[in-house]
Write a structure and sequence with these properties.
- The protein starts with a helix and ends in a 23-residue tail after the last strand.
- With 294 residues, it is an alpha+beta fold.
- It contains three helices and twelve strands.
- The strands form two sheets. A six-stranded antiparallel beta barrel has the order 1-2-5-4-3-12.
């Protein structure tokens, strides 16, 4: 009895396998007579097979969910790290914005308001040795006047092209920034150093009247100062590329590469700034001559 108790499960499996083999052999010899017995076996084994398949599917699903959970956990860690980096960047940007606002309040600067502008196309160029200018298809009837600033197609957030110097009812002539007669008061965006950019007649500009100890480096961005009232403050001029001393040795002259590619310039934006008002300028008094009695 102890033998049967110890190997009871094994004996049941062996008996079950033998019964299956007997059924298979009978069905092979007498297929017609074994159909009823086969149906009984199918009826008995069907629930067992279905239960075994359900167990297999359960463990497969559990395994797949485990791997998916591990992947989700890794992705969650990556997202948490990215959120930490973004929050750190947000704090840095927020401090920069607050510092910018504080400096603007100290300098008494006002936010630049959007000015009316008009787009125009370049229809002709004058690239002679002495003059660098273009002709655009907008004129006096479009609201233009002399000395209006001309920027590239980006508008008031773009780069300086030049200024209107002459116009007819439907066309206008624009003196380019690279012309020898062009000059504009500028600021180095990084350090706040002021200077004067003049055209050379070629592809580069010159930054002049800058002291030797001025804080200027190659790669610095040059923007318009807006002090002359022609070009909006902050519009791009170009980038500092090289330095050289002038003949006096007191100042340094820097080469500036303009932000505008004048060779490929096809469209421009004219900013219609209001005329400067000189209401505070006192007018000279007219002298009244009195007639002497005869």
């Amino acid at each position: 009895m102890s033998f049967f108790r110890r190997y009871r499960t094994l004996l049941i499996v062996l008996v079950f396998l033998m019964a299956v083999l007997v059924l298979v052999s009978i069905s092979a010899r007498r297929p017609e007579s074994s159909r009823g017995l086969e149906r009984g076996v199918l009826e008995i084994l069907g629930p067992v097979q279905r239960g075994g398949m359900a167990v297999v599917r359960f463990f497969n699903t559990l395994w797949e969910r485990y791997f998916n959970l591990v992947g989700v956990q890794r992705e969650n860690e990556l997202l948490k790290n990215q959120i930490k980096k973004l929050k750190s960047q947000e704090r840095v940007w927020r401090r920069a914005v607050l510092e910018n606002e504080r400096l603007r309040r100290q300098l008494g600067l006002r936010r630049r308001q959007a000015l009316p502008s008009i787009a125009a196309e370049v229809i002709a160029r004058d690239s002679s040795t002495w003059f660098k200018s273009i002709i655009i298809n907008k004129g006096r009837r479009d609201g233009l006047r002399v000395d209006l600033p001309v920027l590239d197609a980006e508008g008031q957030l773009g780069s300086v092209v030049g200024r209107v110097v002459n116009l007819s009812p439907h066309y206008a002539k624009v003196l380019l920034l690279i012309d020898r007669h062009a000059a504009i008061d500028v600021i180095i965006q990084r350090s706040g150093t002021r200077g004067l950019v003049v055209g050379t007649g070629g592809n580069l500009l010159q930054l002049k009247y800058v002291t030797r100890n001025a804080d200027i480096k190659p790669g610095d961005v040059v923007i318009a100062s807006g002090s002359a009232g022609v070009f909006p403050k902050g519009t791009l001029i170009g980038t500092v590329t090289n330095v050289r001393r002038d003949s006096s040795g007191v100042f340094r002259e820097w080469e500036v590469r303009p932000s505008v590619d004048f060779a490929r310039l096809e469209e421009v934006t004219i900013v219609r700034r209001p005329r400067p008002k000189f209401a505070d300028t006192p007018r000279p008094k007219r002298r009244i001559r009195r007639r002497r009695p005869r």
